Amino acid sequence: MTNFVRKVAPLIRRDGRLYVFNDDDRKTLLGNYYRALAQVFPTEYSKQNSIFFKTLGFGALMNVLPTFLDMTVNQYGGFTVADAISTFKRVRDFDFGLWVERGTGTQAENSASEDLRTALVDSLEEGQTFIKLR
Questions:
Q1: How far apart, in whole angstroms, are the C-alpha atoms of residue 54 and residue 47?
Q2: N or C: the chain end with fewer CB closer than 10 Å?
Q3: Stretch 66-81: mean pLDDT, rounded?
């Protein structure tokens, strides 16, 4: 619970990326994010000790969320489960198992999130059009 508050609170503060959304939309957005993970990465998601639900993985995913959200909305016009799936499919070969080797702590979390963020941004440069909204 502490890690959830530590990672989500900055996103919903006045200067956070999720501030513009109401509570119901925030809940839906986080739900869609994780439902898309389950669809695109079912093996990792269904593991009993899935990195997605550990401190490192959750923290890294929350660090990437603002970039992921912007990419998805820019590309697909929304953030439905299908939209998020389309974005995650760009990096469907991403090896989340490497995150386990990072260890623990903020530095490991930041490094893991940067790996995923880089993979997502690189996927756009591989022939995909990316229009940045203001």
A1: 11
A2: C
A3: 95
The chain-wide mean pLDDT, for the chain, equals: 88
Could you give phi then psi for residue 130, rounded to 5 degrees? -130, 115
What pLDDT, on the 0 to 100 scale, is given for residue 130? 44
Q: Which uninterrupted H or E stretch holds 76?
A: helix 55-76
In which region does residue 18 sit, left (phi positive, over 0), alpha (psi from -120 to 50) or beta (all else)?
A: alpha
Encoded tokens for 115 = 């790996």
Structure tokens at 126: 């591989």
Predicted TM-score (pTM) of the model is 0.84
Q: Using the 8-state DSSP alphabet, how is residue 104 labeled?
A: S
Region of 132 please: left (phi>0), alpha (psi -120 to 50) or beta. beta
DSSP letter at 14?
Answer: T
